[in-house]
Amino acid sequence: MKIAAIGGGVIGGGWIARFVLSGHDVTVFDPHPEAERIVGEVLANATRAWQGLFQAPLPRSGRVVWASSIAEAVADADYIQESVPERLDLKHRIIAEIEAAAPASAIIGSSTSGFKPSELREAARHPDRIVVAHPFNPVYLLPVVEVVGGGAAAQRASEILTSVGMKPVRIAREIDAHIGDRLLEAIWREALWLVNDGIATTEEIDDIIRFGFGLRWAQMGLFETYRIAGGEAGMRHFLGQFGPALKWPWTKLMDVPDLDDALIDRIAGQSDAQSGAHSIRELERIRDDNLVGIFQALKANDWGVGQTVRAQEAAFYAREVAAPSGYPLELHQTRVAGGWVDYNGHMTEFRYLQVMGDATDAFLIHIGLDAAYRAQGRSAYTVETHIRHIAEVKAGERLTVRTRLLGHDQKRFRLHHAILRDDGTEAATGEHMLLHVDTDAGRAVPMPSLLLAALDRIAAQDSTPHPEHAGQGVRAIRQSEAIA
């Protein structure tokens, strides 16, 4: 699938990062002189966040290909994400240029925060293929995307966005600013009044959100939170008790304070005092780390955004494994992430096991023990492991795992992994015994003929002697060695 991105700012860069990290090449057009630097920094932040978020091996990243024109960017594209500034005349001009060069079958998704599909489609050649695909920042982490426009194009856009870990919400009726921004603007207007009237500072308002109801919203939203507030009687009781308060004169939501120089200076000054100790990139990384922690907690509870993360991670685990060209089998490669490095400055010990575990998963997929097989109630469990740490590896190094099958019978198979650095030297080796099990019964069972035949074919290639260390445990320390 060919992806094109028109615009590489905060939102466009986030889209580019999500597609690239999902394994897609993205052709980008953005005339801004700093566009490549901005997208590169967003991609670096996104890579760091994904490495912390997912336990599964990430797909091989796609490439960012810079185009010199819109026509070059969208040629042969299947999906085009438009993220130019929020001016309707500009969007009309950009869409016209896209349509002049893109295939008629290409879907055009607009990141617009407020314009309706009917407005974007004015004078379009193929209006039905233009939809709103409005995300939230950071696009590479927050999965929700408001899809507005209906029809086959909205369905296809939703399928594409789901495939890269998004959570499309199809909005049946178009409305200015869609759903999310209407809710956010209500809070934003009220917050501006609170600062304007000297009732609260920017930090006090943020504290009430992040130490209070913002935490509830992150995992249950608005209506589910208020359902709990109604007690055992639920939502009906809550509405009966608090509904009349909506008519009280609490709010100024229909008015906007004048954003004159005085108010702008007050807000900017308070914001500097609150957060000015950090650069924007530092704040982005702090935000991303916090989001990753929230996502992981929700994944553990199989709730909210955690379900989206779990589904995306399952797709990563169920990756396609390319057929190896020789033996030992090279089924898994990875690169040492910055978060894998410990206080000694090199990859920490449990990450060696992770790399070998990912190589074992690749071997299982290679022999046919994949997600579809496991869904039948059969799997392979590792019951014994021995790792030898041979060399230090540092952040950024690429690692290749070579795998040998050292033996098998009807219920067991024995693997040997060698983790190699780019120069071919061994960084570590691991030996693993796996047991074929009935996951429902919780006991070992013989493998079917399909798996045994696959293991037989691999075993026939293993003609060299086993490594000398194979089958050995941790060496004993003699008393004389301890004294010396």
Distance between the termini: 63 Å
Mean pLDDT: 94
**Largest sheet properties:** 8 strands, mixed
Percentage of residues in DSSP E strands: 15-25%
Number of helical stretches of at least 4 residues: 17
EC number: 1.1.1.108
Keywords: Cytoplasm, NAD, Oxidoreductase
Pathway: Amine and polyamine metabolism; carnitine metabolism
Function: Catalyzes the NAD(+)-dependent oxidation of L-carnitine to 3-dehydrocarnitine.
What does this protein structure show overall?
Residues 179-244 form the 3-hydroxyacyl-CoA dehydrogenase C-terminal domain. GO terms for molecular function: carnitine 3-dehydrogenase activity. NAD(+) binds at residues 7-12. With 484 residues, the protein is α/β, with parallel strands linked by helices. The chain contains 17 helices and 14 strands. It has helices spanning 10-21, 35-53, 70-74, 88-101, 117-120, 151-163, 180-196, 202-220, 223-229, 234-242, 261-275, 280-300, 305-317, 349-367, 371-374, 449-459, 479-483; strands at residues 3-6, 26-29, 64-66, 79-82, 107-110, 130-135, 144-148, 167-171, 329-335, 378-389, 398-408, 412-420, 426-438, 443-444. The strands form two sheets. An eight-stranded mixed sheet has the order 3-2-1-4-5-6-7-8, with helices on both faces. Strands 9, 10, 11, 12, 13 and 14 form a six-stranded antiparallel sheet that branches. Strand 4, helix 4 (88-101) and strand 5 form a beta-alpha-beta unit. Helix 2 (35-53) runs parallel beside helix 12 (280-300), helix 9 packs across helix 10 (234-242) and helix 12 (280-300) packs across helix 13 (305-317). The mean pLDDT is 94.
